[in-house]
Amino acid sequence: MKKIIFIVLLLLIDNTIQAQEIIVLENQRGNVNFETKYYYKDVNGVLDKFLGTWRNQNSNEFFEITFTKKIKYDQQNYFIDWLTSRYKYIKNGEVIFDTTPRLQPSGSAPDHNVFGAVIYADDLNKIKLLYSEPTDEFDYDGVVHLTYNPNNDTLEWYIEVALDVLDNGELHYPYKVPYSLVLTKVN
User: Fold this and answer.
1) Does the CA dihedral 126-129-134-135 come out positive or negative?
2) Model pLDDT, residue 132
3) Where are the beta strands (DSSP E) in the chain?
4) What is the pLDDT of residue 8?
5) How is 36-48 classified by DSSP, letter by letter?
6) What are the 10-residue block averages of pLDDT along the chain, 187 residues in total?
7) Which domain holds residue 175?
8) CA 181 to each of CA 54, 55, 154, 158: distance values in angstroms, whole numbers, following the listed order
9) Pairing of strands 170-171, 22-24
10) Cα separation of 155 and 183, whole Å?
């Protein structure tokens, strides 16, 4: 009997030490208290509308992206549920990017170029994700704004360049993927 009480006591102590405060994902405001191990949890399934494969295709270009949700992703000082993606971009028959295969071995540098979970406070159908193009450098210097339209099951994709990129004194768009697209749900 003493052993059972001791084991139960150990489990209670362990749970107390590992305790974390759950914050509903859409209530995230960017203020992280590093003394408390917060978990920004998608309690209400706000990210679910973005999941799946989305496509934009015309005569010259093909862009397809698949969003998945990572649950309780460890960010060292907090946990978060967020979106990650794999995408393919083809222009004039040439594959420009294809991140559908794994880019990095598991556990190494980030292997996704579009990820995150910043929900707009005034509209749960809008989200911001970090963006970079798949190169040897993983510099997240852009932000993708996604707007889900429930009326026709589409996503509006817009890339905001976070850094002013100058070429001979003129601002230019630094990405190969189009900055503005309307994506339709494939599955």
Assistant:
1) positive
2) 80
3) 22-24, 38-41, 52-57, 61-74, 78-91, 94-98, 114-120, 123-131, 142-149, 154-161, 166-167, 170-171, 180-185
4) 46
5) S-EEEE-TT-GGG
6) 52 50 80 71 94 95 94 85 92 91 50 79 89 65 90 93 57 76 94
7) 2-185
8) 11, 9, 10, 7
9) unpaired
10) 5
Q: Where are the alpha helices (DSSP H) in the chain?
A: 2-17
What residue has token string 């494939």? 186
Matching residue, tokens 């059972």: 4
pLDDT at 42: 94
3-state secondary structure 118-132: EEECCEEEEEEEEEC
> How many domains are there within the chain?
1
Query: Six-digit token pair at 51?
Result: 């999941």
Look up residue 63 and give its amino acid.
F
61 in Cβ contact with 117 (< 8 Å): no
Q: Tokens 């015309």 map to which residue?
A: 58
